[in-house]
Amino acid sequence: FLLLEKPRCGRVITNSSGAIRNPPRNEMHDNITCVWEIKANASDHVVLAFPYLNLDCTNEYFEILDGPPSSTKSLGKTCSGFYLTYASSSNLLLPKCGIWGESFHFSNFRSPYG
């Protein structure tokens, strides 16, 4: 069973498994960047999956950052795809979501991690 995180525009998460999801529409506005910091136990790694992602590639994206904020490495940027999976090299993974523009169509997403 997965614990579903309360939707927020980024935060520190220390549960061993769960899911991140888009923030409520009333918390979204123009030019927003959301960063979730997913921390596993010191000896574990984090795996984040996007079963389906369909963002407006002109104004919306996800970038997956590996490691602590002071020395992150990008595992890639994406805006669409099926069965996308990212694994950290340490116990820390930082998914970052960016949205630009006055009007945008932000698709709902739910991305499990563990």
TrEMBL record:
InterPro entries from the UniProt entry: CUB_dom, Sperma_CUB_dom_sf, Spermadhesin-Link_domain
* Superkingdom of origin: Eukaryota
The reply to whether Disulfide bond figures as a keyword in the UniProt entry is yes
- SMART domains, A to Z: CUB
Q: Which UniProt keywords apply?
A: Disulfide bond
- Asked whether the UniProt record includes Disulfide bond among its keywords, one would answer yes
CDD domains tied to this protein: CUB
One Pfam family hit = CUB
- Matching PROSITE patterns: CUB
Q: Which residues form the CUB domain?
A: 9-114
- This one is known as CUB domain-containing protein
Source organism per UniProt: Ursus americanus (American black bear)
